[in-house]
Write a structure and sequence with these properties.
By secondary structure, the chain is mainly α. Helices cover about 75% and strands about 0% of the residues.
Length: about 150
C-alpha cells in the first residue's frame, strides 16, 4: 500500500471515529428525550424519540462497519485512535445504561396498567382479595359501585 493511500485511510479512520462519537452523543440526547417523554407520558414525543434513537443506532451500525473495514486496511492503530475508540465505547456504555433505565420505566408502567386492568376486570392478577378474604380468581367483571 502506498504511503499516500495509507494516510488517506488513516484520515478516514479518524473521521469515522469522530462521526461515531457525534452519533453516540445524538443517541444520548435521543435517550434523554425518550426518558423525558416517558416521565411526561407524552406518546407523540415518545414516538419521535424512538424514531431518532433508531436512526442513530442504524447510523452507528453503518459507521462501525466502515471502522472495521478501515481498521483491517491500516492494520495498526495509534494511541490517539485507541483513546478515541475508548471514548466511543464509554459513550455507548452510557447509552446502554440509559436505554436499560428507560426499559425499566416502560416495564413498570406496563405492570401498573396490567394491575389496573386486572382490578377493573376482576382478574386474579390484581392481587386484590374479595370480601371473604380469598383471592379473586375468576375473570368476570365485578361491579365497582351501585347508584
Amino acid at each position: 500500500m502506498s504511503t499516500d493511500l495509507r494516510h488517506e485511510m488513516v484520515d478516514a479512520f479518524d473521521a469515522v471515529l469522530g462521526d461515531m462519537r457525534q452519533t453516540a452523543s445524538r443517541l444520548t440526547a435521543a435517550l434523554a428525550a425518550e426518558r423525558d417523554a416517558l416521565e411526561r407520558a407524552d406518546a407523540d414525543a415518545l414516538h419521535l424519540a424512538g424514531q431518532d434513537k433508531q436512526t442513530q443506532l442504524e447510523r452507528l451500525e453503518q459507521l462501525d462497519a466502515e471502522r472495521q473495514q478501515l481498521a483491517r486496511a491500516i492494520a495498526a492503530t495509534t494511541p490517539a485512535q485507541r483513546a478515541a475508540w475508548d471514548g466511543v465505547m464509554a459513550a455507548l456504555t452510557d447509552c446502554q445504561h440509559a436505554n436499560q433505565n428507560n426499559g425499566q420505566i416502560v416495564g413498570q408502567r406496563l405492570r401498573q396498567v396490567r394491575q389496573a386492568l386486572a382490578v377493573l376486570t376482576g382478574g386474579a392478577e390484581s392481587g386484590v382479595y374479595g370480601p371473604g378474604g380469598t383471592l379473586r380468581i375468576d375473570h368476570r367483571s365485578l361491579s365497582l359501585a351501585e347508584a
